[in-house]
Design brief:
Length: 316
């Protein structure tokens, strides 16, 4: 008996600043229909999928920033996405900027939700590894102000038990963009038995502090997700918002990596494109039960430094 979930990596091409959420949702709904025609059970959309990638700009007024945030999910513009997915019986991952009123104050997070085939939110994740900088740095060709506009996520990396396809329940976790470069992200979910990790991203080709990495951006994208999949015996679905957005080139290269570490599906454009993979969740078992049998082979008492120390301290 296999446990197959058909997954659609729903890469989005550029979203202009002037584009409305209603227009973006219409593009996403079109992708849901295409997914349905191919028998897809679960669609993964990118990080901050409803608007242009606004951390590339420095805004002086908070109201300008807040215009990119959602106050409710679903809200009036996103409800059609939830309703169409429910009608089609498709679950989805959606990244968006979340404005929440919590602990008597306004809080802002880079968030993703997992919606099940019945249209209900069954999981939430708030991005933990926020890249970039907190102050305006005019020397850069463009800004990356995630550290200014978002708080660090406060939910850890929970793993959710969700019915992903008719009669197939799986263990699903989420991460967002820069999280995918850190092995801790995958391992915390691996330690909860995760079978599929969903990751949306916006990755500029050009990295202003390290332009010598630019030519390696696709290689690094694949490297980290393939390694995360293999080392934890899990499926990994990585999905881009891609293409030239407001003058900034972003990578595509959306992929599905199998628990073997192999890429089994990939987008080949930088526009709206669906890459589809049939993912048997039981293919995780041969890795989880042998090479990466954590209970048998991990040596956590030797790993203390990983949580005790933040930056590297070389020996004297
Ligand atoms: N959105 C996001 O997290 N982007 C970052 C750019 C980092 S610059 C190396 C990423 O890790 O792709």
């Amino acid at each position: 008996m296999s446990r197959v979930v058909t997954v659609g990596a729903a890469q989005l091409g550029p979203i202009a600043r002037a584009e409305t959420r209603t227009q973006v949702v219409a593009r996403m709904v079109a992708m849901l229909h295409e997914a349905k025609r191919h028998g897809v059970d679960l669609v993964v959309f990118p990080e901050l999928a409803l608007t242009t990638f606004f951390p590339r700009w420095y805004f002086e007024r908070q109201e300008e920033v807040d215009a990119f945030f959602e106050r409710e999910m679903p809200g009036p513009e996103t409800k059609p996405l939830f309703e169409e997915a429910r009608t089609l019986g498709i679950g989805f991952y959606l990244g968006y900027a979340e404005l929440a009123h919590e602990d008597g104050r306004v809080r802002r997070f880079n968030t993703a939700v997992l919606v099940d085939r019945r249209g209900g939110i069954v999981g939430k994740y708030r991005k933990i590894h926020l890249p970039g900088h907190a102050e305006h740095e005019p020397w850069r060709a463009f800004q990356h102000l995630e550290k200014r506009y978002f708080e660090r996520g406060d939910l850890g990396w929970p793993v959710f038990r969700v019915e992903l396809a008719a009669g197939v329940t799986g263990l699903v976790g989420m991460a967002i963009c820069n999280d995918r470069r850190w092995p801790e992200t995958y391992r915390v979910m691996g330690l909860q038995g995760v079978e599929m990790i969903l990751i949306g991203y916006n990755t500029p080709v050009h990295n202003p502090p390290a332009p010598d990495h630019d030519a390696l951006s696709h290689f690094h994208n694949e490297l980290v997700m393939q390694a995360g999949a293999y080392q934890n015996g899990t499926w990994v679905v990585g999905v881009a918002k891609a293409g030239r957005e407001e003058g900034v080139e972003q990578i595509g290269n959306s992929i599905v990596a199998a628990p073997s570490g192999e890429i089994v599906a990939a987008c080949t454009t930088t526009g709206d494109e669906l890459a589809i993979a049939r993912c048997d969740l039981d293919r995780t078992l041969s890795y989880k039960n042998t090479t990466f049998n954590f209970a048998r082979h991990r040596e956590p008492e030797m790993y203390g430094m990983i949580v005790e120390r933040k930056g590297a301290i070389p020996p004297p």
